[in-house]
Specification:
The complex is a heterodimer of chains A (367) and B (322). Chain A has helices at 2-18, 20-40, 59-70, 86-92, 105-110, 126-148, 170-201, 203-208, 214-243, 252-276, 280-297, 310-315, 320-334, 338-366, and strands at residues 48-54, 74-80, 97-101, 118-121. Chain A is of the alpha/beta class and 367 residues long. In chain A, strand 1, helix 3 (59-70) and strand 2 form a beta-alpha-beta unit. Chain B is α/β, with parallel strands linked by helices and 322 residues long. Helix content of chain B is 37%, strand content 26%. Chain B has helices at 5-8, 53-60, 82-86, 104-114, 119-133, 148-158, 178-193, 205-209, 228-232, 248-257, 280-290, 305-321, and strands spanning 15-24, 27-37, 42-46, 68-73, 76-77, 89-92, 166-170, 197-202, 213-218, 221-226, 240-244, 261-267, 270-275, 297-300. Chain B is elongated, with a radius of gyration of 23 Å. Chain B starts with a helix and ends with a helix. Chain A binds chain B through residues 3-4, 6-8, 10-11, 14-15, 18-19, 201-203, 205-212, 367, and chain B through 61-63, 83, 86-87, 89, 91-95, 97-102, 106, 109-116, 118, 159.
Chain lengths: 367, 322
């Protein structure tokens, strides 16, 4: 059994070695996608167009405005005496946020009385609005505590303490998901194509007439792709670490283990798809659809699973990227050991076993 | 087989089929086919595309379950023991079982690996295969760069690496030039002489002539099975005529309607007619002459396998209509 499996693996590796395009796609594409998405995909908002309505015109109000501008997130585009023209500015999109400092602000601060500010936001893009609001809160509370030594209203302020990613840099959070996404798509498609190619070329018919059994064929075919995809995974993580300053705090061995488990599941899924498809085109489309969409939408990569409707939350349990991303974030960002992510690893093993069994059963039947 | 008693007893068949049937939905691809193939025999399956040749081979190789009836290969039932059969057969499918992006040696080693050949036994078989395929000096050539004839011999060598007692060749000479085709058949003769049973499908009459026995297959049915010589002896002397005339294709309908013509068919730019009596030739010449197909010549010829085949198909369709 091992010998026949190895014969298939060696053959596949030899073919892969001559197939420059596939190798390039498997190795270079993940890095390229990571570069593109890594820079493009970020929830961080910068250079927010800010209108300032300073009706207080005191030293403390000017210091507050300075704090906003120095933060690097805001650019002052308008300076107004009264809030009324804001309507028009927001309508035109000329400003995204407005800081309104009421006339009594300076006096309140001087008298160490609780006081209030108005922060107006364009909520049509709720994601951006949320982020901007977060920045504003942070600036105001820092300024209030540091410069004025007063508490702004409400008197009890919850001061968030962010661990692991203190700057709340979304790239650090997104890159592990991106790695999962890229690896899933490329591993599923590569293996689906590898088996369907045998059908298209007619070599499958000859393979079937040999004592080779489905499991030997599938595992043998998976091994070389597992190797190449692991190299691609290592490259992507190195790139994430070097270029996007994603800290790798956990053990590299655990990282490798979880990655290989995830890849095995993706490759197994590719094998299963190959038993459904008869042409490379069909295999490609099935592979793309079934790996890209769930990994993008249902894995917690971008949209938190906890904020999904219950029905969707149930579906996420069969998306392997969900477990991989959770484990990856735990290992990479938190340096957590297996006591934290063992259930995710177990789920990946279960997924891998189930798809391989499905693929074998399907292949036996279609053989 | 090697025991002295075997000489007296009939040699046990290495491939048998009995009432073998395979249908796909309403379509019956193989219809109650029965035959036996002796060890070392070159057994030809002759028929047009869609006659059921490939389906029969796939059943015998254990790739397809029969709908009804039974078959055995090397003593194992195809329905229940396909795993045992697969270690004892070689199968060369219509599309050669080679990887064009691998070299000659890589292909040989891969196919040997699927039969778990290794070590010294493997090296010996590789040497043998390179010799058979005449590729000793092109071991590191990619298969896609080989001419068709070499590829075909290499494909055959690949499915013989594990020295199977039976080899199934499904239209092995498609797309190969006549010289390569002739040498391929010399190779088949050598295999047969060495005791390997060769089960080969073809739609070429020349190739069928080189088989020890030929099974005529049409629309899933086995119409006739015998040696090429005996199949052709089924015609009385002088009853197969070759007719040369103008506009042969149009003359065919007229010829078929003449009295005494059992059947007629177009052979290139000539017609072949099977008649009930050797003296019909004169009448045919005269009738076609009058019908405007002059000049007409009708000469008795030795029947070819094609004549046998066409007559068998006509008789079968007449039976079917009756």
């Amino acid at each position: 059994m091992i010998r026949r499996m190895l014969a298939v693996a060696v053959k596949e590796l030899l073919q892969l070695r001559r197939d420059r395009r596939t190798i390039l796609a498997l190795l270079a594409m993940p890095a390229l996608l990571l570069l593109i998405y890594g820079f493009a995909l970020s929830f961080d908002v910068r250079d927010i167009r800010l209108a300032v309505v300073d009706q207080s015109r005191t030293r403390s109000s000017r210091e507050l405005v300075e704090a906003f501008l120095k933060s690097g997130y805001f650019v002052r585009v308008a300076d107004l005496d009264e809030p009324r023209p804001l309507d028009a500015l927001f309508d035109r999109g000329a400003v995204q946020a407005a800081l309104v400092i009421p006339a009594g602000f300076g006096a309140d601060v001087a008298a160490r009385r609780p006081t209030a500010l108005q922060f107006v936001l364009d909520g049509s893009d709720s994601q951006t609005a949320n982020t901007v609001l977060g920045y504003a809160r942070q600036i105001v509370s820092a300024t209030a505590a540091g410069l004025f030594e007063v508490e702004l209203r409400p008197p009890v302020v919850a001061r968030p303490l962010v661990w692991y990613n203190p700057n709340l840099d979304s790239t650090v959070f997104l890159v592990p998901g991106l790695v999962a996404f890229i690896l899933m798509v490329s591993s599923v498609i590569a293996t689906a194509l590898a088996v369907v190619r045998e059908k298209e070329r007619g070599t499958m018919e000859s393979l079937r007439a040999t004592p080779l059994v489905a499991l030997e064929l599938l595992v043998g075919k998976t091994l070389p792709y597992l190797l190449v995809a692991s190299v691609a995974a290592a490259g992507s993580l190195t790139l994430a670490w070097g270029l996007f300053d994603v800290p790798i705090r956990g053990s590299l061995i655990w990282l490798a283990l979880v990655t290989v488990l995830f890849l095995a599941g993706g490759l197994g899924w590719g094998m299963f798809l190959s038993s459904l498809a008869d042409t490379q085109q069909m295999a490609f489309q099935l592979g793309l659809l079934s790996s890209m969409l769930p990994t993008l939408l249902l894995s917690g990569f971008i949209f938190p699973i906890s904020s999904m409707p219950p029905a969707l939350q149930v579906i996420t349990h069969v998306v392997p990227a969900r477990y991989f991303i959770a484990a990856l974030r735990a290992i990479v960002l938190k340096g957590a050991g297996p006591e934290v992510w063992w259930s995710d690893a177990l789920a990946l093993v279960a997924f891998g076993v189930v798809v391989l069994v499905l693929a074998t059963v399907r292949t036996v039947r279609s053989l | 087989m090697s025991s002295p008693a075997a000489a007296a007893a009939p040699v046990p068949a290495v491939v048998t089929a009995s009432e073998l049937t395979r249908s796909f939905g309403d379509f019956i691809a193989v219809d109650r086919v029965s035959f036996e193939v002796a060890p070392g025999e070159v057994f030809g399956f002759l028929g047009s595309n869609g006659a059921g040749k490939t389906t029969t081979i796939r059943i015998l190789c254990g790739l397809l379950a029969p709908t009804s009836g039974s078959a055995s290969v090397a003593g194992f039932d195809v329905a229940t023991s396909s795993a045992q059969i697969k270690t004892r057969i070689g199968y060369m499918s219509q599309r050669f079982s080679l990887y064009s992006d691998l070299t000659v040696d890589e292909n040989l080693r891969f196919w040997a690996g699927t039969y778990r050949l290794w070590g010294r036994a493997l090296e010996g078989r590789l040497r043998w295969a390179r010799e058979v395929a005449e590729l000793e000096r092109r071991r590191r050539t990619l298969v896609r760069e080989l001419p068709g004839g070499f590829r075909q011999r290499l494909a055959l060598a690949c499915c013989l690496l594990h020295e199977p007692p039976v080899v199934f060749l499904d239209e092995p000479t498609g797309g190969v030039d006549p010289e390569a085709r002739r040498r391929f058949w010399d190779l088949i003769d050598e295999l047969s002489a060495a005791g390997t049973t060769v089960f080969v499908t073809t739609h070429s009459m020349d190739e069928a002539e080189r088989c020890h026995r030929v099974a005529l297959m049409h629309a899933g049915r086995l119409l006739a099975l015998d040696t090429p010589t005996r199949l052709k002896a089924g015609f009385a002397a002088g009853t197969v005529l070759e007719i040369g005339c103008a506009l042969a294709a149009r003359a065919l309908a007229r010829l078929e309607s003449l009295p005494g013509v059992v059947n007629a068919a177009l052979f290139g730019d000539r017609l072949h007619a099977v008649v009930d009596d050797p003296t019909r030739g004169r009448d045919i010449e005269r009738a076609l002459d009058q019908a405007g197909f002059a000049p007409v010549t009708a000469t008795p010829i030795a029947p070819s396998l094609e004549d046998v085949f066409i007559r068998a198909i006509r008789e079968a369709s007449r039976e079917g209509a009756a």
